[in-house]
Amino acid sequence: MPHSVPSPNIRQTQLFINGQWIPSQSGKTFDTINPANEEVIAEVAEGDAVDVECAVEAARRAFDEGPWPRLNARERGKIMHRFCDLIDEEIDELAAIESLDNGKPLKDARHVDIPLAVECIRYYAGWADKIQGTTIPVNGDFLCYTRREPVGVAGQIIPWNFPILMVAWKWGPALAAGCTLVMKPAEQTPLTCLRLARLAQKAGVPDGVINVVPGFGPTAGAAIVKHPGVDKIAFTGSGETAKAIMRQSADTMKRMTLELGGKSPNIVFADANLEAAAEGAHIGIHLNQGQCCCAGSRLFVEDSIHDSFVEKVVELSRKRRVGNPFDPATEQGPQVDRAQFEKIMSYIEKGQEEGAVCATGGQRVGDRGFFVEPTVFTEVHDEMAIARDEIFGPVLSVLRFSDIDELVRRANATTFGLAAAVWTRDVSKAHMLAERLRAGTVWVNCYDVFDAAAPFGGFKQSGFGRELGQRGLDAYLEDKTVTVSLG
Ligand code: NAP
Ligand code: MG
User: Fold this and answer.
1) What percent of the chain has pLDDT over 70?
2) Ligand 1 contacts CB of residue 157 (under 6 A)
3) pLDDT value of residue 1
């Protein structure tokens, strides 16, 4: 596999606290690696509890005394737009760093992730001066109204699968609301988050409003979660970590939004546009190397078309080009790190042991970097591990169905509830299923369609609260009721 690797200028590798770039107090650093060749890209300052202490203090001060929450709301919006202009100016370098650190194809970072991130921040910039309360007709001689105030200091902990986009989903609503924040990026992908902090500062976001503490979950992450100076946690990642965070934050009663994993059903009926559905099944699982919380990892195919439909999906998987993320022809890069790679390979092994048929893929690609063949399992049964667990890789489980009630029961028989999709030309069936599927997002005749204005989040153990849209902003606001005697 040819490996031409660009060398973007990585300028930010330290902690960003109160507008300053500083080493961690311990002096420790950790390596961030390029998952395509397993080489070290940069050493990044490793923050832990003492650094989080400083970051929260800065964010607290910026919230309690600083200009940001008190600024004219329209001015906050303008600064956010300026931030987006600066991202647009550096889009090529940002995309190269994102691709280098995460492994995703450069063209995806450049043409999908970053444009979506910019759109999200601009969407919330538009909200900044539209946050308003209501006047309420109460009994008696009183004027009663509500104010919508920023929740305070937000602690934001994000994963590695969409580093820049996750920053946008977290910073956009927080900044528009007038909050200040402390973010811990994932240890695998800290670089673009740090660059974005620099751009936000350049755009005019005051010191202390955005603080970034790269480091590890059990140290830096846990310190944010426990800190009494943090009012709200916004977390995206695994269910296990989310449960630990809920326990650890109970003593300080933090507000919380959790965006977790899934095992989303992607349902194809015989009456669907089968070419489009096959493409949707393919992208639904393989997008972003399969590292999507909403991946359509359970493909339910109606019995009568099962074999021919599976053939189409297998063919698409076979043709998918896996390789150097910087090659414009590449559609799939490496998994983010060795741990994820090994987890995926062990699920592939488990699938085979449990009797599913590996119709295509199943092997590592090359011997350097964490590349996995796009993999499709057929003859999968509901109780198999590959049908139940989130694999977070390019591994599709195909299941058959015939009866619709039985299908709904099986599709919902999971602890997750993040997304679902239905492919059919029958409008009534589509809406009926959209109602009966227990998931935060249902796509009909499409997959992975996101919009900054459309709320996204989970039912059941896929989390709670919503990101994006007005609901995403609400998570950063408190309602205050003011009652004034007119007597
Ligand atoms: P994870 O442990 O949930 O990591 C997500 C973030 O939480 C990272 O920044 C992580 O720090 C931090 N963290 C870990 N332990 C913490 C703690 N005790 N307190 C506070 N923060 C903590 O996920 P992972 O280990 O990267 O991936 C494991 C699995 O999670 C994947 O295989 C996948 O199934 C799922 N996942 C889901 C999503 C999603 O979008 N819903 C994204 C990524 C992963 P570190 O950088 O030190 O890990
Ligand atoms: Mg990395």
Assistant:
1) 99
2) yes
3) 47
